[in-house]
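Reviewer has doubts. Consider these tokens.
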Amino acid sequence: MARDFESNLRDADGAETRQPSPVIDRTMGRRQWAVLLLLGLIWGGSFFLIKVAVTHVPTFSYVWLRVAIAAAALLLFLRVRGTALGIPRGAWGMMLILSLLNNVVPFLLFGWASTQGPSGLVSILNATTPIWGVLLAHAFTSDERLSAARLLGVLLGFGGVATMIVPALIGSGGMGLLAQTACLVGAFSYAVAGVFSRRFKALNISPMSVTAGQLAMSALLLLPVMLLFDQPWHAALPPLSAIGAILTISLVCTAFAYVLYFRLIETSGASNALLVPILTPPIAILLGGLFLGEALHAGDFAGLGLIALGLAAIDGRCFILLAKARLRSAA
């Protein structure tokens, strides 16, 4: 019989992590909702910026610049503030895993997929992250269990994915099957990282330190790969638009946003934090249409609608509001 997620973590880490599992309060207050909305705006704009960046900069170089600049900014901020990074030696193995799951794999996959199709479509497929996250949180945590409403949300979400994938299977649509699959794998990687990162709260590592540590590790991992495949010394200097896009992605969409994201996970749980992707597609679609001339197919919007309904069911608050409205009308 499978052990729960926290038990597996304690066994893997030894004595350092043998302490009570942190219990998450899934009810979000106004501050948590404000953070959720802000992250939706930031990451919604990031897909447009990624498209601008990868149009002029090779994918490996773009991803390395993103994580390296973000890591440098956060480490400099900690130094100026006089705050130690505070990551125990035994936790760097976990940091390596988190950097692969939350940075290296999804950044590369979404960066490459952005060269193959519209940024709005990439953002829609990224919105499947909380669907994967709900299943993983149910399997590997004790306080984020799967309810009937969440199961309905998962089924609706996968229906939305199927609606978008089928045209690629029959040879039509705006993005190939391989690129769409890359997006789904990237979304799954984000979801695994969201659940996995809960363990850092048990070690009393701050969200700022988790963010800086994973980004620094990602930069070290990607440096030799980027030098081997992209050979940047042969590349021409990208235009100012691409440079500006990479700086914005690094400082705002990565460094600043991930601090907010890990703090949200720490206070409200992985499945709540993973609701952010429901907010990103409308912003990404709007920016892609206005500035990049991108157009999506009817099936893409149908898929987005099903995914949005699924995420609303996963969140469950819509059912609570409907129940309250019925009680008021009955009274």
